[in-house]
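Quick question, first post here. What does this chain look like in 3D?
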Amino acid sequence: MKSTRFTFAAALAVGALALAACGGGGGTDETGGTASGEATGAGSGAAGSVQVLIGSSGDAETRAVQDAVAAWSAESGTQAEVIVASDLAQQLAQGFAGGNPADLFYMSADQLHTFASNGSVMAYGDELSNADAFYANLVDAFSIDGEFYCAPKDFSTLALVINDRLWEEAGLTDADYPTTWDELTSVAQTLTSDGVAGLGFGPELQRVGVFMAQAGGNLVEDGEAVVNSEANVEALTYVQERMQDGSFAFSSDLGAGWGGEAFGKELAAMVIEGNWITGAMENDFPDVAYTVVELPAGPAGKGTIQYTNCWGIATDADATDAAQELVEFLTTPEQQLAFADAFGVMPSVEGAAADWIAAFPEMEAFINGAEYAINLPSMIGSADVIAEFNAQLTSLQSGNVQSMLDTVQGAMEAALRG
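> Answer (accepted):
Ran it through. Tokens below.
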């Protein structure tokens, strides 16, 4: 069995994907591009220059973006400045409210719907020369009523992460990697022992939702709420039954803050997590060997969830043309692979996938998920519905699945009504 060892740090944020910033050093490089530290506000720079506002997972991401923007600045002759937000969502809102937004910025799908509703962001996606290069599911995440707003900057998916030692000690081999729910049930039960759950995951839709996708379910289809569909009932009933027999468990019930911690402490032999787990394992649990495989298929086939941000451009930006040119530079396969090497993200352009897999073969399961990943709803009000869903999930082990889904169905219908 091949043990997974990653030598780069992947540190993506999840949930709303409004990344908290880590401080960066200030200074101006020799090419004329400016690398800035934290800023409390976000306003467009001088005419003809591009101001870039980012949320950063750490120094590696900050340096990578600063270097890329500086390289573009040297090549284009256009001044550019990178500002690392201390609170990206707040600083974006302040910039728009003050009529002085950054030209270019990280933006999540839920933020897109909010800012597009009042005309704050440009719909420039279809104007890009590489508009057809992105994964279709990522384009869908940043499209409203069929209009492609902004270029996905990178993405992540969920996969099954397996503890090599516990797997081998249970008498399992590579041939036993689960590809169906029945096989997942079998290996999870085999791996379960005193103090160790066969499979662990966070107590949230953002993890449990993969089973819904595998059953053919979702929360919204064709603009209609489908939370309490038969597919979703089947998915949550399957999870509930496995929780009741002790082979599945929420990370919180195992005494861990998230799935990666439960896995690293060997409280769960398998977890459902994203590619950001590699950084945590490298930094906090370097002695735990593991393998990543695609999530098993359910009754409707394969399913996972993807998370992504885009490069947003402000409608009132001083340098919209230059900002769009910078986006095209930042989303070339070469630059996206450089970002992957620097801080572990997956490229949003399909053309970079083969080179990414060649560089990080142990991570292939994550990028393979792009073919069948779903997006969680991101329209205005969806965050409140997801919070309600997560509140209902706390009682999944003993609760009434149909009643739980009916409650969230009502909340989703209300959100869709605006």
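The chain has two domains: 27-156+307-374, 158-305+376-416.
The two ends are 51 Å apart (CA to CA).
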